[in-house]
Structure formats: C-alpha cells, structure tokens
Design brief:
Blueprint: E1 2-6, E2 15-21, E3 24-30, H1 38-47, E4 54-59, H2 65-68, H3 71-81, E5 84-89, H4 117-124, E6 149-151, E7 157-162, H5 165-171, H6 175-182, H7 215-219, H8 229-232, E8 236-241, E9 244-248, H9 254-265, E10 272-278, H10 290-294, E11 296-303, H11 315-324, E12 329-333, H12 346-352, E13 354-357, E14 366-369
This protein binds zinc ion (ZN).
C-alpha cells in the first residue's frame, strides 16, 4: 500500500502517509495543520496499537501556522502518546545560513532567535534525529550535484525538491516575525486571525461565478508567482514507493519545483510522470503555473484547504490543471467548500475529461491509495 491521507487540516496541511505490506506498515507525517487540527492527529495516533506509534519521519515543511501549529502539541505530548519519530525534518533558524547545523549536545548556542519552541521540542525529542539525513544541516537543494535522497525503512525513497539556499537566505531577515506569527516564540500567541489576508489578490477577488467557471479564461489570466518568503522556504519532496510517485509540495514555489524536476528528469525530456501531486500552497494561483502543470504527467491532484482565511483553492490554479494537465485527471478535495464546489459540474467534467471527489463530511478528509491499479 501507498496511501496518502489529507487529513481535514482547516486551511492548512496535515498529510498522513502510509506504505508497506499488510503486516508491516510504515508511516510519515507531513505537517500538522493549525493547533486546532492537533486533536484529530492525536486521535489517529491513539487509534494505532501501542508499540506501533512510530513514524519514520515527521516533516514540518516551513514555519507557517497552518503547517506548524499542530506540531507543537504533538511534540510536547509525543512521549505520553507513545509516539516516536525516526527523523524530524525542519529548517530552523540556524539552517538559514550556509553551513548552519543543529548545535551538538552541551553546546548551548541556541540564541534568542533560535530558541523558538519548535526547535526546543525537536531537541527534546532527540537532537540526533533533527535533519539527520544531512547530519543536522539544512535540508535544501544544492546548486550542483544530486538532489538529497533518503531511503526509509520498508523501501520508501524521498528526494528533496525545495528549498534552495536562495529561499533560506530570503527568510533569514524575516524569521523572527514569521515565528511570532506562527506562535513559535514561547509566550507569544499565534496570529490565527487572518492577518495574512493581505496575501489575497484584491483585484481578482470579486469572482462571482454564475454557472460553470470557464477554465480557458481562468487559466489564461496572467500568472503572478508567489513571493511569500516562508512559503518559498518549504521543504518539498518526491516520495516513491512500489513504482508509484507522489509530489508533496508544501507551499513551495512553482519555479523551484520545476527546476528540481528538470534536474531529476535529466535528458529524458517529456512530462515527468507522477501518480499524485498535492497542489502547493493549498491551490493558490501563485504556486501552480501552467508551466509546472505541463511539466507533469499526473492523474491525481490533491488540494488541502477548507477555503477559510485565504479562499483556497484559487479557480485559476484548478483551471490550469484542467487545461494543461493532459486530460483524464482526478481532483481530490479534502473539504467541500464554496471555493471548490464549482468543479463538481458534470458538464465541465465531461468537457475537460476529469473527475472531482469530495469527502462525505467535514471530518473525513481524503484518502488515496496509489498502489491500487486504476485504468488510465
Ligand atoms: Zn500553507
């Protein structure tokens, strides 16, 4: 099995990934949504038999609240939950400077900026597990040479596709503000008040779609790349198991993903084949370019958002997937909302040869088992 479970994570991401054989299931957890999402994660962990609450990897893609919020209580309570992690991946403040590594035990150099709660909690869970793949260094795509890869127990292979040093450099001067917003500074409440609403593109907000949307017209709107620095610092992965591949993009920049995919493909040419792609940044229009969609051969496109705060997914992003994805596509939404229900139109589905699936209830999320054979 190779199962991707987009938990209902409010307007964020919480991806529960399982792979392996029936007798031996391995798990990864990628992001934990906002703090409000944590009880769902806790429930899922407690539903596992004791002694099986091990995750090969906990990945916190970047510092934004909708990815990190639930990771704080999880790490705080991991011992009492009986949960353990083989590796914990997160680029902390020390990783933003070239050559920065997790300080060794006894080396108490966590300065005021580095002492955010998540960093402290990871150290408390075992500093040797922190970015262990790169011996405590930063997880990033080097300018030259192969992309960093990790083979996990049970045969899962992960390849790092984002960020590059450029995105980490850009985050350094705004790290403190980003951490305060995400509630990573002890004693400072998280800014879960929609204060990032300024990200929304005002001029394109007034879409009152009467009848079906027009993917041609939407996809043709000018593409304006996301420049939000925390998003750019996202750790994005290609996950491969049993001949199946999934792109797990966090909130990464389309341009960074494209460049890494081109390096992976080498001289092969053509579209890079993956079985699933989680749309970056909850299907924001600035993170899914036509160029990125055209670079992929992908059947399953996943979107994680309830539409709150940032009205994700943007219609332009979905339209680009439909227009440029090559047909025979499945859209998987982990909530039904006023921002995605227009894609349930049967007329549109017939015309653009796609299917859209929605969860049965607000707490169902979406599950996709890539090891199941599906007709193309
Ligand atoms: Zn996000």
């Amino acid at each position: 099995m190779f199962r991707i479970d987009l938990l209902p994570a409010e307007y964020g991401d919480a991806i529960w990934l399982e792979y392996g054989q029936r007798q031996r299931i391995n798990r990864l957890l990628i992001d934990c949504g906002t703090a409000a999402v944590y009880p769902r994660i806790r429930e899922r962990i407690l539903a596992l038999p004791e002694g099986q609450r091990h995750f090969e990897l906990l990945l916190v893609t970047h510092v934004d609240l909708d990815h990190i919020g639930g990771a704080l209580p999880l790490l705080r309570e991991s011992a009492s939950l009986g949960a353990s992690f083989g590796e914990i991946w997160f680029n902390g403040y020390m990783h933003l400077s070239p050559g920065g590594v997790v300080p060794a035990a006894g080396d108490d150099t966590l300065g005021p900026l580095q002492g955010e709660e998540l960093s402290d909690l990871i150290v408390a869970n075992g500093r040797q597990r922190w970015n262990a793949l790169v011996r405590g260094g930063a997880l990033l795509v080097p300018d030259t040479g192969p992309l960093p890869q990790l083979s996990l127990p049970g045969g899962m292979r992960l390849t790092v596709l984002s960020p590059r040093q450029e995105q980490l450099d850009a985050l350094r001067p705004v790290w403190d503000a980003a951490c305060r917003k995400a509630g990573l500074v002890p004693g400072v409440a998280a800014a879960d008040d929609g204060s990032r609403l300024e990200e929304a593109d005002a001029e394109q907000e007034g879409d009152d779609l009467l009848g079906d949307p027009d993917p041609e017209q939407l996809a043709a709107r000018p593409y304006k790349a996301d420049r939000a620095r925390p998003n750019g610092s996202s750790i994005a992965l290609l996950a491969e198991y049993g001949g199946r591949r999934a792109l797990l993009t966090g909130d990464a920049f389309a341009e960074v993903l494209l460049a890494s995919l081109a390096r992976l493909a080498g001289n092969a040419g053509g579209r890079f084949a993956v079985d699933a792609c989680k749309l970056s940044h909850h299907g924001s229009r600035g993170n899914t370019s036509s160029e990125l969609v055209r670079a992929l051969q992908c059947r399953n496109w996943l979107v994680s958002s309830n539409g709150k705060q940032f009205r994700h997914p943007d219609a332009e992003a979905i339209a680009r997937v439909l227009r440029d994805g090559g047909g025979d596509i499945r859209l998987h939404f982990n909530y039904r909302s006023e921002f995605n229900e227009m894609w349930s139109s049967t007329a549109l589905q017939r015309r653009y040869r796609y299917a859209a699936s929605y969860p049965d209830g607000a707490a169902a999320g979406v599950q996709l088992d890539l090891s199941r054979r599906t007709r193309r």
